[in-house]
């Protein structure tokens, strides 16, 4: 890191600015930062999640020995440039960091950022030290593009603009396509487009913005399926006073209904299914931009006017409360739309003289001018927690200075996808510094996420970060000048700075953790205001809180962005391949900080490893339970706990916060209304909600629980003993017909042998997976015996099918069976296959199990119950065939476990599932098939680092 002070600025043009003076903090003169760490060579091998084949292999890559296997795998596969196997391919983290930092240092020298060559060298060394020690990271486009022959794209977030003209709408399609092609996301507000209730100049009726959304959605889907490494991330915003707002609100909810109806009708709506493309609007996040006027009308139960786009006159009156409830109901059904608070956003706008803020990026954290972009960088907060559990305030200040300097330099050399975006970004120089690992920091210091102490620490850290950022921006303005648009926006910009400082003055320290942070933040804001009045500011925006998906994994962060921990148990990848389950390392530290002795800590950690939660842990006080609350699980943080944390940090951010408020499946529409209302009252800029399982109906699991409770309650008063005839076992003859099926579920291979009575159906099932003697092999043997004994005692096969079909656990996903393309688990696949092989159509239809031919017949309007030709794969008829094991030629670091244990099992999502006995409601990664986990309002894949939004 660097300690920096600005040089004096010449007056009246008599003297040139001196540039920044830098001071070493972590590096030593004459010693390169690379020489201060121990490096080691590793092998990175990525396997195909469908069949276990190798789809990426690079051996002998070089990383510091303290980097985790997962972090090294992700950097190697995503950020190293050059074709694998060629001399141009990067093979070391040193090369990657040299490529990126070299461009920053070189541009800083050329543009007068540094006072001397020595200062440039110190900047270079401190930046390299911070990056290789995982203290912070730039966003993914920097690692992709800087220092390569490609355009020097550094921004991850874009906002576009669309006018009420066909040329502008078509240009929007084109601009989005260019951005998606580069792996970034964009947002747009469609409220300028005339509604379907207004007339065109020709006399016809306008199509309305929702109709044009179809074309943009199809474009995004096409680009995604044409080879992008992640889905096209985009945001569509519509103002609440637009006449088509109701249609916009219900758009995605109707499509979710279509998915269910088509699936029930037998259409192929699985991931990658041929019929899923008929579902529209799935490539965008939707948000309604609400005004204070509308929210007041909701509170008062008054009517609200929808206005024509061209004239601004009210063309329809609606009940505000009814419209607000429709928003909440749609979000309850499918998690869309989110909400953005227009007046709050624009009240904190530094550049209102240039134009209003109308939209955001896909994850809602970047909110600024149309046709602009923002590059991001995030700080690893846990790196500043000292051994005595105090926060390294001085180190945090110096790192923030370093990052802001580097980020501003990047805008100087950056390339942009369109000329309009280039002009706006260079004129306003928007930056997005943020942080990750807040949840881990709070837990490690014994602070509950949903507590006054937790919120006070988060608020103080955020205030300090933004105060230092704008203070450094004012120093840069003295050296290389304020941003081009500052002169016309000087007064509103300084007003917003005073609002930030006033919010900081309103903070009150709670304990020893936040007290010194808040004291330093107050000093920084005072200096920020002083220097800003004198020099102006180099950047129109400085801070926001991004989801930090891929870069969070790169920094080995336990938690992303502002999020709490997802689960108390995680999976750690091992250097020799495979993985092990571990309790989060912040938990022992938290227990010690709370005063527990080493023996107590050991017992509690052992309990957590076994149960996945802290309830009834031996010796743990009930008042300490809240410290270990997570986003999901036995003690999930309440929805308002998420909202209150966002509200604590929002006054100290230039932009907004990428975060989804999680609600349980039992949450009501009224609960979502309350969250949206409180978000407005507490001063948030944007908010999204997600009700667990809202996109996947699970009525059977709920009914099952209800039935069990009802049966148990009804059975309590019964005292009469009834003797029931015991079933007799009917053994199979020594020789019986059997079929062996080789299958693959989510990359896990197995064999199933099903034996039948010569005259009367299935009587025995044997399953073989994994190595003989392994836990999995033993469990499958025991399961096979239990099912076989049940069948031989007269339990109908359809009973087993009804109980085990749709059971969810890992491994899950794609199969190699054309009749069962997707399986929720191995057990789900097994009993679907058994039903197809041994049950008549009528019984299977009642259970929702159809073959591919039957589904096709349904679509053609034919009788699906007609006899179907059975085709047997004779190559698979090798009874009790062994599982093939590939010999290891040399130790290798794999991004996934062996074939029989697919990569999806490695991560927080799987840890949560294994302890809750349920499937975390997250999509599969389109790149590697791993179960993703939430990161802000997006998702991140722990297997390969891909994200569904900002990186």
TrEMBL record:
Q: Where is the Ribonucleotide reductase class II vitamin B12-dependent N-terminal domain?
A: 44-134
Please provide the record's keywords in A-Z order.
Cobalamin, Cobalt, Disulfide bond, DNA synthesis, Nucleotide-binding, Oxidoreductase
Q: Which PANTHER family match?
A: RIBONUCLEOSIDE-DIPHOSPHATE REDUCTASE (PTHR43371:SF1), VITAMIN B12-DEPENDENT RIBONUCLEOTIDE REDUCTASE (PTHR43371)
What is the protein named?
A: Vitamin B12-dependent ribonucleotide reductase
Region span, Disordered: 1-25, 880-915
Q: Which organism is it from?
A: Sphaerisporangium album
Cofactor entry: adenosylcob(III)alamin
Q: Could you say which protein family the record assigns here?
A: Belongs to the ribonucleoside diphosphate reductase class-2 family.
Q: Which CDD domains does this one have?
A: RNR_II_dimer
């Amino acid at each position: 890191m660097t300690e920096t002070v600005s040089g004096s600025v010449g007056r009246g043009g008599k003297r040139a600015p001196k540039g920044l003076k830098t001071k070493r903090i972590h590096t030593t003169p004459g010693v390169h930062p690379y020489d201060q760490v121990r490096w080691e060579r590793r092998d990175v091998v990525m396997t195909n999640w469908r069949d276990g084949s190798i789809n990426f292999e690079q051996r002998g890559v070089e990383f510091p020995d303290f980097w985790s296997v997962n972090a090294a795998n992700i950097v190697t596969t995503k950020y190293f440039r050059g074709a694998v196997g060629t001399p141009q391919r990067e093979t070391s983290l040193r090369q990657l960091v040299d490529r990126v930092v070299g461009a920053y240092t070189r541009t800083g020298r050329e543009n007068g950022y540094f006072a001397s060559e020595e200062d440039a060298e110190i900047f270079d060394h401190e930046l390299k030290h911070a990056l290789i020690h995982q203290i912070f990271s730039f966003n993914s486009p920097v690692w992709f593009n800087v220092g390569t022959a490609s355009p020097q794209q550094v921004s991850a977030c874009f906002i576009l603009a669309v006018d009420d003209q066909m040329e502008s709408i078509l240009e929007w399609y084109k601009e989005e396509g260019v951005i998606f092609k580069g792996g970034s996301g964009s947002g747009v507000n469609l409220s300028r487009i005339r509604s379907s209730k207004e007339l065109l100049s020709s006399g016809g009726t306008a199509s309305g913005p929702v109709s044009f959304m179809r074309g943009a959605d199809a474009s995004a889907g096409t680009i995604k399926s044409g080879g992008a490494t992640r889905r096209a991330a985009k945001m569509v915003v519509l103002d609440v006073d637009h006449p088509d707002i109701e249609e916009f609100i219900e758009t995605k909810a109707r499509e979710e209904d279509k998915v269910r109806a088509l699936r029930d009708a037998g259409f192929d709506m699985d991931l990658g299914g041929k019929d899923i493309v008929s579902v529209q609007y799935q490539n965008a996040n939707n948000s309604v931009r609400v005004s204070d006027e509308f929210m007041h009308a909701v509170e008062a139960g008054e009517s609200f006017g929808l206005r024509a786009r061209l004239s601004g006159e009210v063309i329809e009156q609606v009940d505000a409360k009814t419209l607000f409830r429709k928003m909440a109901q749609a979000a309850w059904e499918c998690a869309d739309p989110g909400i953005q608070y227009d007046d709050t956003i624009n009240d904190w706008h530094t550049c209102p003289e240039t134009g209003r803020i109308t939209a955001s990026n896909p994850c809602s954290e970047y909110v600024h001018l149309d046709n602009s972009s923002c590059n991001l960088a995030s700080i690893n907060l846990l790196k500043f927690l000292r051994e005595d559990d105090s926060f390294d305030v001085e180190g945090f200040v110096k790192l923030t200075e370093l990052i802001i300097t580097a980020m501003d330099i990047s805008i100087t050399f950056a390339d942009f996808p369109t000329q309009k975006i280039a002009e706006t970004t260079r004129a306003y120089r928007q930056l997005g510094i943020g942080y990750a690992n807040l949840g881990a920091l709070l837990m490690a210091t014994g602070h509950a996420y949903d507590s006054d102490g937790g919120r006070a620490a988060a608020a103080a850290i955020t205030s300090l970060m933004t105060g230092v950022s704008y203070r450094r921006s004012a120093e840069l303005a003295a050296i290389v000048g304020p941003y081009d648009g500052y002169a016309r926006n000087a007064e509103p910009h300084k007003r917003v700075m005073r609002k930030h400082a006033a919010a900081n003055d309103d903070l009150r320290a709670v304990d020893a953790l936040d007290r010194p942070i808040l004291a330093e933040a107050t000093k920084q804001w005072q200096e920020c205001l002083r220097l800003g009045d004198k020099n102006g500011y180099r950047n129109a925006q400085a801070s926001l809180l991004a989801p930090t998906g891929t870069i969070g994994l790169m920094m080995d962060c336990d938690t992303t962005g502002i999020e709490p921990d997802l689960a108390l148990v995680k999976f750690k990848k091992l250097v020799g391949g495979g993985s092990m389950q571990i309790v989060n390392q912040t938990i022992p530290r938290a227990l010690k900080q709370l005063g527990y002795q080493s023996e107590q800590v050991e017992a509690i950690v052992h309990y957590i490893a076994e149960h996945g939660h802290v309830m009834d842990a031996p010796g743990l006080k009930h008042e300490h339970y809240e410290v270990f609350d997570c986003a999901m699980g036995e003690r999930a943080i309440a929805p308002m706990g998420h909202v209150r944390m966002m509200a604590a940090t929002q006054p100290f951010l230039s932009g907004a916060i990428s975060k989804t408020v999680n609600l349980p499946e039992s949450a009501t529409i009224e609960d979502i209304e309350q969250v949206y209302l409180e978000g407005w009252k507490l001063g948030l800029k944007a908010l999204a909600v997600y009700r667990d399982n809202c996109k996947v109906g699970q009525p059977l699991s709920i009914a099952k629980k209800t039935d069990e409770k009802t049966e148990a309650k009804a059975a309590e008063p019964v005292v009469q003993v009834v003797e029931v005839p015991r079933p007799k076992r009917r053994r199979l003859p020594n020789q019986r017909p059997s079929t062996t099926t080789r299958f693959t579920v989510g990359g896990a291979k197995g064999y199933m042998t099903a034996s039948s009575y010569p005259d009367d159906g299935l009587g025995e099932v044997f399953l073989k997976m994994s190595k003989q003697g392994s836990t999995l092999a033993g469990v499958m043997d025991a399961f096979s015996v239990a099912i076989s004994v049940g069948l031989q005692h007269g339990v109908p096969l359809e009973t087993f099918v009804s109980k085990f079909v749709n059971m969810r656990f890992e491994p899950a996903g794609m199969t190699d069976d054309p009749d069962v393309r997707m399986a929720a688990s191995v057990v789900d696949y097994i009993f679907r296959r058994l039903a197809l092989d041994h049950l008549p159509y009528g019984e299977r239809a009642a259970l929702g199990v159809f073959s591919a031919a039957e589904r096709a017949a349904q679509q053609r309007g034919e009788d699906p119950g007609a006899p179907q030709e059975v085709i047997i794969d004779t190559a698979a008829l090798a009874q009790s065939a062994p599982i093939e094991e590939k010999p290891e030629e040399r130790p290798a670091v794999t991004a996934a476990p062996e074939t029989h244990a697919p990569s999806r099992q490695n991560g927080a999502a799987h840890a949560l599932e294994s302890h809750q006995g349920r499937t975390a409601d997250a999509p599969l990664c389109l790149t590697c098939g791993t179960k993703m986990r939430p990161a802000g309002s997006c998702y991140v894949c722990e297997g390969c680092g891909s994200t569904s939004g900002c990186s």
